[in-house]
Here is the input.
Amino acid sequence: MKKMLIAGNWKMNTNVFEAEKLAQYILGFLKSSDEVSSKVLICPPFTNLYPISKLVDGTSLLLGSQNCHFEQKGAFTGEISIEMLDYCGVSHIIIGHSERRAYFDESDELINKKLLAILDFGKTPILCIGETLDERNSGNTFNVLSKQLNADLEGVSAEAIENIVIAYEPVWAIGTGVSATTEQVVEAHNWIRQFLVEKFGEAAKGVALLYGGSLNEKNANELLAIENVNGGLIGGASLKGESFAEIIKIAQKYV
Ligand code: PEP
Here is the structure.
């Protein structure tokens, strides 16, 4: 049986009313579905976490955040700690998203500090990695992935590796409407699995590998069927309740 996680990254979208409405829609869909074996996660903006935590309490819908600081408190104006997220019912935290790497200059060293702090706290990091179009076109995809994985996973033990989710998100596929092809996803996910098994041993076979980059209800069938794909990190399509629900339905075929 394949592990499956369908995760929505709402980015900087939804005010509190829109967020509650979207969460209610997903909850309604999950309630009315005969069987949903995948884990389903939504990652709204920080300000919507607490109100949504009240809605999802006691349900199977998981709540995640899009970022965190690695310290638990202190003089870090504008930042949010893992402990604060814990009080909002968060189980997963996205780190290393390409938008944070590109627009906020997040380095692999910083991402590694966040990852270790998240693991220490007992939460699940969703570590995003991926190459730009220039890096792919110059034949450097796997050099980039290996550099990111080595640096971001520095200090992680073989016992801890299964508690990490890795999202392969080719930067050129994010928000463009052009997903990676099946062949490209098969190649990248097989490569990541093998890299992790060589580095961490057999336990790495249990790491959930998500694909992200213009995943939607039209291409989900093909992409979620791939052996080493354990779900998706979904931006645009997760903001439309019907599309997100359809992806959850499709995932059910492959769990
Ligand atoms: C993302 O932001 O992680 C993402 C995959 O976005 P989109 O689905 O819109 O490409």
Remarks:
- The chain has one domain: 5-242.
- The domain at 5-242 is CATH 3.20.20.70 (TIM Barrel).
- The longest helix spans residues 182-200.
- The chain has a mean pLDDT of 97.
